[in-house]
């Protein structure tokens, strides 16, 4: 997970193979990623993509960001959509 002033990004990486399995972000979206609603959408998108790829359990790396606001919203939305941390 990474966030900037304008966007928020999430990816699921297979550490054994060193490859990105799925990714989601607000890049290309019509709305800015600088709000909680966009983070919720990215959380739901990453969880849905993970289900399609057969991933159910992940480790959440907040990338040094505090666990509140958009970071918390993304994590909660992913959990609510079925991804286990």
Structure description:
- The chain is built from two helices and three strands, in the order βββαα.
- The mean pLDDT is 94.
- With 85 residues, it is of the alpha+beta class.
- The chain has one domain: Nucleotidyltransferase, domain 5, CATH 3.30.420.100.
- A hairpin with a 4-residue loop joins strand 2 and strand 3.
- Helix 1 packs parallel to helix 2.
- Helix content is 34%, strand content 19%.
- Strands 1-2-3 form a three-stranded antiparallel β-sheet, with helices on one face.
- It is globular.
- It comes from Aurantiacibacter atlanticus.
- Belongs to the universal ribosomal protein uL18 family.
- This is Large ribosomal subunit protein uL18.
- CATH class value: Alpha Beta
Q: What name does the CATH topology carry?
A: Nucleotidyltransferase, domain 5
In what order do the strands lie side by side in the largest sheet? 1-2-3
How many distinct helices?
Answer: 2
Order of helices and strands: EEEHH
Structural class: alpha+beta
- Sequence stretches where pLDDT stays below 50 over 5 or more residues: none
Dominant shape:
globular
Chain-averaged pLDDT = 94
The percent range for strand residues is 15-25%
Radius of gyration: 12 Å
CATH architecture: 2-Layer Sandwich
Biggest sheet character: 3 strands, antiparallel
Q: Tell me the domain tally.
A: 1
Protein name: Large ribosomal subunit protein uL18
GO biological process, one term: translation
GO molecular function, one term: 5S rRNA binding
Keywords: Ribonucleoprotein, Ribosomal protein, RNA-binding, rRNA-binding
């Amino acid at each position: 997970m990474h966030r900037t002033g304008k966007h928020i990004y999430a990816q699921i990486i297979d550490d054994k193979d060193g490859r990105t399995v799925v990714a989601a972000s607000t890049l290309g979206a019509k709305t800015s990623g600088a709000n909680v609603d966009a983070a919720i959408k990215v959380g739901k998108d990453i969880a849905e993509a993970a289900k399609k790829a057969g991933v159910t359990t992940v480790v959440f790396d907040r990338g040094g960001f505090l666990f509140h606001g958009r970071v918390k919203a993304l994590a909660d939305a992913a959990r609510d959509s079925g991804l286990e941390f």
